[in-house]
């Protein structure tokens, strides 16, 4: 880490004791760590493929398949009475002139009730894959030891890795949002003559809930990957995070609840509180000695 070492007057001196006035959280050091992790991300083919293929499936393939279904199939012939009743419940608040056929109703229900939960898997899976590689990947490459011996603070180390996981995941989520919106709006314009995406619910999802869920996923995965020895092990444990989203899908399919704006805001508040707790744990629970012990263990 020549760049980081060049910031110090005395080699090996701890940042908090520098007389040169170096701040505890040095933005230049955090930026250097961020660039290092992003560069490695670009060079890691398997990880990069995950960030491309998974979002494409959820943002393009699935919406395109459902769009083709509503454009070229008779939805009513494939629905049982329970499903039709659930769709009526989901569209009860719409004006009579907004939806004219069952196919239009199906597209609206998929876009605004079922698909948002599926879309949440994009930021979860991408941020989980990157964050799981944060410490576990350093251990596999035998580079964590040099980081721990370099004169950087634990806060700088975690801040750099948090940014290196969050910003690429946010970029992928935004690109996926645009792609899925293009596919859905193309279908809605052909079928209904107007655009239905994005609704207010989608704006809450992409601007509030999705970033908070990404941060939660990253913090959990950083804590996990700091304690395990391999990237695969960290990713397997971190994969448990998708279970609540699957539960949301099951709950909506069964008619147990509907994912409306109010519920999204409540979920966002709960995730925010959880993030504050996790962030505090990340800063306090992990320390240089414990990370080094895991590195050589």
UniProtKB/TrEMBL annotation:
<feature type="transmembrane region" description="Helical">
    <location>
        <begin position="157"/>
        <end position="182"/>
    </location>
</feature>
<dbReference type="GO" id="GO:0005886">
    <property type="term" value="C:plasma membrane"/>
</dbReference>
<feature type="transmembrane region" description="Helical">
    <location>
        <begin position="202"/>
        <end position="224"/>
    </location>
</feature>
<dbReference type="GO" id="GO:0140359">
    <property type="term" value="F:ABC-type transporter activity"/>
</dbReference>
<dbReference type="Pfam" id="PF12679">
    <property type="entry name" value="ABC2_membrane_2"/>
</dbReference>
<feature type="transmembrane region" description="Helical">
    <location>
        <begin position="236"/>
        <end position="257"/>
    </location>
</feature>
<feature type="transmembrane region" description="Helical">
    <location>
        <begin position="263"/>
        <end position="283"/>
    </location>
</feature>
<feature type="transmembrane region" description="Helical">
    <location>
        <begin position="113"/>
        <end position="136"/>
    </location>
</feature>
<feature type="transmembrane region" description="Helical">
    <location>
        <begin position="47"/>
        <end position="72"/>
    </location>
</feature>
<keyword id="KW-0472">Membrane</keyword>
<keyword id="KW-0812">Transmembrane</keyword>
<keyword id="KW-1133">Transmembrane helix</keyword>
<protein>
    <submittedName>
        <fullName>ABC transporter permease subunit</fullName>
    </submittedName>
</protein>
């Amino acid at each position: 880490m020549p760049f980081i070492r060049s910031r110090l007057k005395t080699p090996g001196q701890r940042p908090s004791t520098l007389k040169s006035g170096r701040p505890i959280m040095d933005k230049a050091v955090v930026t250097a760590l961020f660039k290092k992790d992003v560069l490695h991300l670009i060079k890691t083919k398997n990880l990069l493929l995950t960030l491309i293929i998974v979002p494409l499936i959820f943002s393009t393939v699935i919406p395109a398949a459902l769009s083709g279904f509503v454009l070229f199939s008779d939805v009513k012939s494939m629905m049982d009475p329970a499903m039709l009743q659930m769709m009526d419940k989901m569209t009860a608040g719409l004006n009579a002139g907004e939806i004219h056929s069952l196919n239009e109703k199906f597209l609206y229900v998929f876009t605004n009730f079922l698909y948002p939960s599926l879309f949440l898997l994009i930021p979860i899976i991408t941020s989980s894959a990157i964050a799981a590689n944060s410490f576990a990947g350093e251990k596999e490459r035998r580079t964590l030891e040099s980081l721990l011996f370099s004169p950087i603070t634990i806060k700088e180390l975690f801040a750099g890795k948090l940014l290196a996981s969050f910003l690429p995941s946010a970029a992928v989520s935004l690109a996926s949002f645009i792609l899925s919106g293009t596919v859905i709006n193309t279908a809605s314009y052909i079928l209904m003559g107007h655009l239905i995406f994005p609704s207010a619910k989608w704006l809450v999802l992409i601007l509030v809930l999705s970033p908070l869920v990404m941060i939660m996923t990253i913090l959990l995965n950083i804590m996990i990957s700091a304690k395990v020895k391999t990237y695969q092990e960290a990713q397997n444990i971190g994969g448990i995070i998708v279970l609540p989203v699957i539960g949301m899908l099951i709950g909506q399919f069964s008619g147990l609840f509907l994912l409306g704006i109010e519920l999204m805001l409540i979920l966002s508040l709960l995730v925010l509180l959880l993030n504050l707790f996790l962030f505090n744990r990340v800063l306090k629970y992990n320390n240089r000695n414990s990370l080094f012990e895991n590195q050589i263990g």
